[in-house]
Write a structure and sequence with these properties.
It is a single chain. This protein has 18 helices and 8 strands. By secondary structure, the protein is of the alpha/beta class. The strands form 2 sheets. It has a 5-stranded parallel beta sheet with strand order 2-3-4-1-5, with helices on both faces. A 3-stranded antiparallel beta sheet has the order 6-8-7. Helix 12 crosses helix 13. The protein is globular.
């Protein structure tokens, strides 16, 4: 039995980085069509022109962000003429924050934390673009988050019409959208769409065979031989398909291997995977809660507390109870409730009858929501 146990200084991980969310694999399968389409869209920028604007659309965990990061890495290794800038709109979802990140990409540091106006940042960005004679390609990842605070038109207008205020600037946009109910082309107003006119590139969900192949490649790169048997891989694939998000499967492998390593075993068993899944399945919830403002976290926690009491929740009844513990107006409250629905934190549905009341149900266990917020 001892020969199957790890020594105190041994590990199951050949390369732990392989299981990180932002890892870009050298061998990136099943997205060749999308990559070729993106290369076509950005090719004018490599020649000094303006790339074509693009929307990458698909459910979470379908390879959109990894594809863009892979493309941006290749661009940076090929040319200095086209400068790609990646923006995570979950974290930076205001015009000021987005242009601050562009400024950092071009200058190597963020603008001063205080006393700097947006106009000063925009002037500096335009001056660097013109002085260095470069083309900017800005990726707005999770661009649907800009809709919640009604920033999408301001951001796109400033980016895409910059040449009107600063002749000679060339900026194009790749928008990544993970909410399939959002049609970004229809959400922007006419003055923006007249210059946006994006090409849609769709990222379909991975099939079960594709998920197996991707996870198998990660196992070969990141873990030592024999750590994950075919039978255990079957369970990981099953749980990944249940969640509908490849990131859950990658995180699941990492946590399950850590469980086995902690028990000084050289291979995973079913219990390692089941224990890991209880955490990995909340990946979306964890990332989304981090992006909420303090007021939104208070309201979400209140929803979870009401759900914990097994009370039926209508939008009207929750508003009445929420007002007792927080200063919130009718308009702001309904805006936040709709935002939670769009972020897949809650479900909203109508109950037929007098007044057609809207019912609220949490997508996650209320205990877990409260735990993450606290």
């Amino acid at each position: 039995m001892k020969k199957n146990l790890l020594m105190w200084d041994e590990t199951l991980f050949r390369d732990p980085e392989v299981f990180e969310i932002d890892y870009i694999p050298e061998q990136f399968n099943f997205r060749d069509t999308q990559m070729q389409s993106l290369v076509f869209q950005v090719r004018p920028g490599i020649r000094g022109g303006r790339p074509l604007n693009t929307i990458c659309r698909g459910l979470p965990g379908t390879g959109k962000t990894t594809t863009i990061r892979k493309l941006f890495s290749e661009i940076e290794n090929t040319t200095k003429k086209l400068v790609p800038v990646y923006i995570n709109c979950q974290m930076d979802n205001t015009k000021f924050a987005i242009f601050s990140q562009i400024y950092r990409k071009l200058s190597g540091h963020l603008p001063p934390a205080s006393g700097t106006s947006f106009k000063q940042i925009l002037d500096s960005v335009a001056r660097m673009v013109l002085d260095e004679d470069i083309v900017l390609l800005v990726c707005l990842d999770d661009a649907n988050y800009l809709l919640y605070d009604k920033e999408i038109n301001n951001v796109l207008y400033t980016l895409l019409r910059s040449h009107e205020s600063y002749p000679g600037t060339r900026i194009s946009v790749i928008a990544i959208v993970s909410d399939m109910q959002v049609d970004l082309s229809r959400e922007v107003d006419a003055r923006v769409y007249s210059v946006f006119r994006p090409t849609d590139i769709y990222f379909s969900p991975y099939t079960e065979d594709e998920v197996r192949n991707i996870l198998h490649e990660r196992i070969l790169q990141g873990l030592y031989s024999g750590v994950v048997t075919e039978k255990m891989l079957d369970i990981v694939v099953e749980q990944t398909m249940k969640s509908g998000d490849l990131r859950v499967g990658i995180d699941l492998l990492k946590r399950a291997a850590l469980n086995a390593e902690n028990d000084a075993r050289k291979c995973l068993n079913r219990d390692d995977i089941c224990r890991a899944y209880e955490i990995s399945k909340y990946l979306h919830l964890t990332f989304t809660v981090r992006t909420l403002k303090d007021e939104e976290k208070v309201l979400l926690k209140h929803l979870a507390e009401v759900a914990l009491e097994e009370q039926e929740m209508t939008t009207g009844s929750v508003f009445k109870s929420a007002k007792k513990s927080m200063k919130i107006g009718y308009t702001r409250y309904y805006w936040m409730i709709n935002k939670f629905d769009e972020m897949r934190l809650i479900n909203l549905f109508y109950r037929e009858g007098r007044g057609r009341s809207r019912l609220i149900s949490l997508r996650y266990e209320p205990e877990r929501v409260i735990e993450l917020i606290e």
